[in-house]
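Data availability (excerpt). All sequences and predicted C-alpha cell strings are deposited with the supplementary files. A representative entry, Histidinol dehydrogenase, is shown inline so that the format can be inspected without opening the archive.
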Amino acid sequence: MIVSKSDILSIRKKIDWDFYIEKVKPIVEEVKRRGDEALIEFTMKFDGVRQKYLRVPKEEIDQAYDLVDDEIIDALEIARENIERFHSITAVDRDIKIDFGDCILGKRYTPIESVGVYIPGGRASYPSTALMAGIPAKIAGVERLVACTPPDESGGVKPLTLVACDLAGFDEIYVVGGAQAIAGMAYGTETIEPVEKIVGPGNVYVTAAKLLVQKDVAIDMPAGPSEILIIADETANPKYVAFDCLAQLEHDPNALAIVLTTSKDLAENVERIANAEGGSLNLENLKIVIVESIDEALELSNKIAPEHLSIVCENAEKLLEKVKNAGSVFIGEFSPVACGDYASGTNHILPTSGYARIYSGLSVETFMKHMTYQILTKSALNRIGEAVIRLAKAEGLEFHAKSVEIRLKEE
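C-alpha cell line:
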C-alpha cells in the first residue's frame, strides 16, 4: 500500500465513458419511444422486480413515518436543520443592479423550474442524498422537485428514503433506477413529466446516461468512484487516518483512498491498522505516499483534485488558502468526512475523478441561473452608439448598425 510519488498521479482507473454511453444509448432510446412500458421492462430486467407503482402514492409516504425508528427520524431532522442552515446562509441575494448614471446594468438570478434527482437505492437506502439534493433545491426556489430511486426487493421504496424525501420537500417520487430513470426524467413518459435539470450520484451507467442526455437537459457534473485524499504529518492520529480511509473504501470496490504524509511511522501505522481492520474491503485501493514536505503534499493534492480532502497536520487551517482543487475540505482530526456525508451541513454530492479542477459540489447555485439586463438613457446611447455602429458594420451586420443609427438621428 505504500507507493512512490511517481505512481500516485496515475492512480485513478480511467473510465471509458464512450463505452458506457454506447451501452445505455439503447435504453434511453427505448424509454423515449415507449415510455412507462420501457421503464417497467428495464426494471424487471436489471433489478429483478416489478414495481408496485411508478409514482409513490402520498399515503405510502405518510405511512413510512410509522415504519422508521423515531431515533433515525430525529437524526434526519438534525441533518436537515444543519443542511438548511448552511445552505440558507450561503444563498445570499445575488442580484446585482449598478447605476452608472446614464445607464443601469444588472444581473438577476432565477431558479430552475423543474429538477430531477437520482437517489441511489434498491436493496440499500440512501436518505442522505435526498437531503443533500432536495434541501438546496427548495432553498433556491425550485417549484417541481422530482426523485427517482430504484425499487427495493418488494418493488417499492425503502421507508427511510421516503421519509427523507418528504423532509427535504420533494414533490414527486418515482420507483425507477438506472439509465432508464435518467431517460424518464429527461424526456418524460406517460407518468413522469420531463425536467429541466438532473442531479445526483449514481453508478457508471447512471452517469453515462446523464452524459448522453445533457444535450437536451442540464446536469450537475460527471461522477466516478468516491475518493479521499489525506494530508498528514507526525502529529496525526494513525487510527483516525486509517478509519477515514476505510470509511471511503466501503463505498465501492473502486473507491480510492490516498494518504500523503511526511512521517514514515504514520505511514506504516496506517497500513498496519488498515490491514487489521479492513476486512473484505479492497485495500489495494489504499495508497500511502511518503513526501518530503506538506507543501509537496499540497502540490500533489492540487494535481489530483480529490473529491474529499482531509488535512490533519500542524496549522492545518492556515493551509486552506493553498488548496486550489478539491470537492470539499475537512480540517483537523475531529472533522471526519462522514460528518460532511451526513449532518455537518455542507454537501456530499461532489465532483470526483479529478473533476474538482473544473466543477464545484452541489449547492443552491446548482439550481439557479442568471440573466443580465440593461436600461440605457439617450445620453448613454449617444456615448457608445458610434462604437456599436462601427463594430456592427465591421462584422457585416448592417441592420444591427441601423437599429442604433435611427435612434441617434432622432432628437
